[in-house]
Design goal:
The protein is α+β, with helices and mostly antiparallel strands and about 90 residues long. It has three helices and two strands; from the N terminus they run αββαα. The longest helix is centred in the last third of the chain and has 22 residues.
Length: about 90
């Protein structure tokens, strides 16, 4: 729905604005009477069991738990490779 799409877009913008990487969950407050949306927090260590909100939200977006784990591992390897590439030895 429209609100879910807007929240997803704002979550990405908030995550990028703080230089986020890897695993996090962006929480919101929504005032339904005025349609105002507020980012409450960016949770950098959300629960990560199969019944936690983080993987459940991804599942609702079409990403199953095993695939989510694979994606996060790939992101971690990519981030490590980037750090090694940018590391300067003196």
């Amino acid at each position: 729905n429209k609100l879910s799409d807007e929240l997803r877009q704002l979550a990405v913008r908030g995550f990028c604005a703080v230089g986020g990487s890897g695993l996090s969950r962006v929480d919101f407050f929504v005032r339904m009477e005025s349609n105002e949306i507020y980012i409450n927090e960016i949770n950098t260590m959300p629960g990560f069991t199969p019944v936690s909100m983080y993987p459940l939200l991804w599942e609702k977006s079409g990403v199953a738990y095993p695939e989510l784990i694979d994606r996060l591992i790939d992101l971690a390897f990519d981030r490590h490779a980037d750090k090694r590439k940018n590391h300067i030895k003196l």
